[in-house]
Here is the input.
Amino acid sequence: MADEYIIRNGQVYDPKQGIKGDVMDICINNGKIVSKVSKKAKEVDATGKTVMAGAVEIHAHVAGPKVNEGRNYRPEDKLFTCRATGANTHMEAGFSIPTTFRTGYNYARMGYTTVMEAAMPPIYARHVHEEIKDTPIVDQGAFPVFGNNWFVFEYLKNKEDANVNAYIAWLLHVTKGYAIKIVNPGGSEAWGWGKNCDTIHDPVPYFDITPAEIMSGLMKANEQLGLPHSIHVHTNNLGNPGNYETTLDTFRLAEGVKTNNKFGREQVFHHTHVQFHSYGGDNWGNFESKAKDVMNYVNQNKNITIDLGCVTLDETTTMTADGPFEHHLTELNHLKWANVDVELETSSGIVPYVYNPDIKVCAIQWAIGLELGLLAKDPMRTFITTDHPNAGPFTRYPRVFGWLMDQKYRNERLSTFKYSEKVNDATSLGSLDREITLYELAQMTRAGPAKALGLTDMCGGLAPGMDANVAIYNINADSLDGASIEKAFSAADQVFKCGTLVVDNNDIITETDKRTLWVDVKVPDNKQVERDVVMKFLKYYSMNLANYEVSDHFVPHPYVIEVDAT
Amino acid sequence: MDTVTLTMKNLPALYLEAETISPDQFAAKSPAEIGKLSAYMGNEHHTLGDFFEIAGNPGKTAADTKIVVTGDLSKVKYIGMKMTAGEIEVLGNTDMYVGAWMAGGTIRVKGNVDSFCGMGMTGGELLIAGNARNYLGAAYRGDWRGMQGGKIVVGGNAGSDLAFFMRGGEITIGGDVDVHVATHAEGGKIIIKGNAKSRVGGQMVKGDIYVFGEIERMMPSYKYIGDEQIEVNGTSGTFQVWIGDLGERHGKRKGETIYGKIYLKVKEAEEKEGSTRVSRKIKLTDAQMQSVSEAFAGKEPSVSNVKAFIQESFGIEMKPMQISRLIDEIRRKA
Amino acid sequence: MTRTITDVVCPFCGTLCDDLIVTVSEDGKKLLDVENACAIGAEKFLHTQASDRVTRPRKIQEDGSSVEVSYDEAIEYTAQLLVNAKKPLMYGWSSTSCEAQSVGSEIAEQVGAIIDNTAAVCHGTTLVAVQNVGIPSCTLGEVKNRADRIIFWGCNPAHAHPRHMSRYSIFPRGYFTGKGHKNRKLIVVDPRTTDTSSLADVHLQVEQGADYELLQALRAAVRGQELTGDIIAGVPKEKVYEAADLLKSGRFGVIFFGMGVTQSLGKDHNIDAAIMLTKDLNEYTKFSIIAMRGHYNVTGSGQVLGWQFGFPYSVDLSRGFARYNPGETGSIELLKRKEADAIVVLGSDPGAHFPVRCVREIANLPSVCIDPHITPTSEICKLHVPVAFVGIEVGGNCYRMDNVPIDSRKVIEPPEGMMTDEEFLRAVNTRVSELKAA
Here is the structure.
């Protein structure tokens, strides 16, 4: 880690510093980017290659109880795609739900160095951290879910700002969590009775608070506390034809809300996997894309960020804290359904899914994800994901890059669908000739997500002082065809993680200590919340309060971001 | 066809994993190259040449290649895995996974096979002269797509879990089968010439099962809808038709629900009398039951004692499982 | 003087109670009392104080007597055994911490072993059923707060999970269940009359070995179908219809099940049908199903193996990548077919639980038993290595039957000089690396 490196002559793309393909050297020392190094620095020749900061994954399901349930209940996901123990790597297994070792290695191979686990059920936080510990190389954080939490319902309903703030701070602390995640607000609690909240104004049974109130309340709390990330939302009505209206209703909650944080974050609201929320029509027959309407709004409202959730047309596994949606899905495709309702906190479901390109709906879903990306006016607010593994495995990101960056590549796919005419009728993808550039790609996979997470000074960029997370790809602006893009970004030539060379010659050569990012918020003492927590544990939880907090030994390399909200 | 003969020369101390014994793997290779193909025993890497004498030459393609395997193969697994064409003849008993995931070609086993044979099969023929154990023509763990095509024929008996999650293809069993036939099947055709025990067509969504012998215990979620005169694979006769599984989901076509079907052959004696029996299950009259209860009151009845008693007292021969149930019933009423 | 330690996690069964109170001597060496535990849990804590505890490894001789050896010798023996074997089996894992399980995985990957846990003779069939049809489930707190229909199918919690009914399933007054057991209906399905069935509102005395038939009949009844026969699997047809109605009429139902269905005729098919019944019932009301896991951390072993290798038990690493197929890669069949050539047992007692044929095979093979107790297993292995009790003398993470992870505590010191299994395994792992590098 103390090694000096100089990466020579690469074509550098760094939106943090506005560098758009300049041929320049990148210097590394002591784990950080520096402006210069001594003659003893080891040389890496990046002539003709693209150099970017390590990528930042803002939303993927890679660690925790539902991910592991997915692994254990899908032995067939491991058939014939395993990789044997290597000189520097553990054995690897799993296509749509890789084991933790494979997860770390595959992200690193693609040049990703920071990965956020999208949803952590608080009572299971210990499990999430055990898996994070066993995921090599990449720095990680996890988002505890708040949108179906009984404490949150009570405090928001009673408009007790100080209390909800204190509870949020407490929960982030005991779970070692990173941000406020909201999934199907209210609906997953309703699912405890087999019900749901279909619009953002449907009150939650018994708790009598609406999803809109939950999201607005938590958004307000997030800004009062000044957390590094904004609220991270998966709104109601996911996956249903016509749901774009729910999505726009949800976005409107952020109107006029201003951010307040010391981390350079500009958005107050991040909506995830928007592809699943951009549907028009009112049944699967007249199902169509509303990507245009959705992106019109996103483009005009600068305090929102989104990630795409692109469909990759694979057999994959859906898994989400939107319990009722997963039940709905199993009723559609009759495939095995796993569900876990979590006391006082959330719900979750898992169902395998085959995105068959011969099925019109799947092809339209594929088109929508790309449309959203191509219609985005601000790549710093639009991030590329597949909601791994829901719309596809993260190992398909390079293919998604190829579709976004090469019109011919995506049109080849579009024109060979069995129902390509119907797909073209239902979406505007065929008419979009935009090709995302390498610079924009860096915005959508590095600088943008880092900034949205409040980590703009730490990662996602190559400015001196930042962590030396660097990826070198065997491709440049002269040869940007889809197949080459997919090949180059699937296996970087070299990857540095905090200044250690972890990938060389397109494969892992060593592991290195990874860090767990979490947020510790200081709030004024709150005796009421302390008492409420004690009482609810005594009466309603199935475990003792004293055993709830995640002890330090589960997080051997913490990176704690302190926030003073007193 | 060009033929390669493998003769076992060294018995493996544990079990040999020989998925490289396949026309696809042998095609266009020299015998020396074939000898160098991998064969694992536990965590030790070996080659086929370590365990087999290799004679003859393969064809240029899998389709032109025949492999004959001989010797003591009882501890050899995976023969013919994933083959797409060509032939394999196994002269003797062998172990598990014969023809697993095969897509074409023919495998003939002149002996018995163990479990998991024909797993995930999509085409070709798997012909077993002797018996097969469990999970014949089944899906791999967790996969809802089991056998999808091809043909399996077993001369002898098959074990449990036959055709698990079957979707297509055809299986014929010359002898008897154990429990759980075609569980979760969504298609396919199965012919059992001997007897079945229980759980035939459990949770079946769609598919056809023909049983020429007896079914000891029919699922309570199957419904008898009448008799049909049919011909199946050369056998004609009157068959009881049972639809189900009524506890499972079913598709519809033109408003009609599509059920799984069990065809149970009506036996000749019954045919003359008129087929009203479910199967040859004997029921004692209430008086006879009373007799039995009294005879064993206060004692611990064993299956053999009760069987003997019933034989002596009423001249009726009952099967052990029926007697066991009878004993339970008596105990309950006591 | 004494010290009192609260919120102690009981390391016995899958109920994983975490409200125990343990009293220890001031110097932390003697365990004096334990409160709130059931009889089994209390005994687990108290018997650590047995005066005849084995504190050093012992080599078992041909005549059954034993010779004490050092931990170093034990480490060497174990490492050599594993490195020299072509298909070593590392079995057990259910009565130890996730931290120790993880070191076991490292060793297994290095030597190309099969790693298996007690699910192989217990709820492995449940795991297979879940792989076939999924599982609608919930945490135990949901049961406490919402459930008004409880079914115990093929299990007897009064004996096997004694505090289950009072902590989670029958008696607690939760958020929506203020009337406790008075507003809950209990159905017990068991061929026997048991202490649990004596509490039931409805006891269906299913014919032994016919649970699958009864479950499919219930599914048909729930769908409004007519059943064939007057007695279905030992239960009168009318009672089957009534049971279906009782289940549908609840607000929130939970099926708990155990060995009565996981290891009787059909095994995973029984669980499969029960899960499908649960899924069907979600068309009418809210229903979940939870497996009554036995050992306190068999669930944890399944989790660790899952995230590291992709499968929950019977994992074959012998070819350098993970393979899984119970029926081939499971401990029972490996031993029965003589496919394993060495065995290391940790945190379980196959000598007591496995079929005799398999126990004989263990006795014939090079074998090590890592266990605080003298057990049927330790006496037939070649080497017995005692280790500290997890959850009492050393802490470690454990997973409850509903997969909730709870970090168990250390409340007293282990006997002088005794290793923990994590320490022992780490030393074995280091030695294995050395031997493999040579």
Notes: The first helix of chain A runs from residue 65 to 73. The mean pLDDT of chain A is 97. Chain A is about 30% helix and 20% strand.
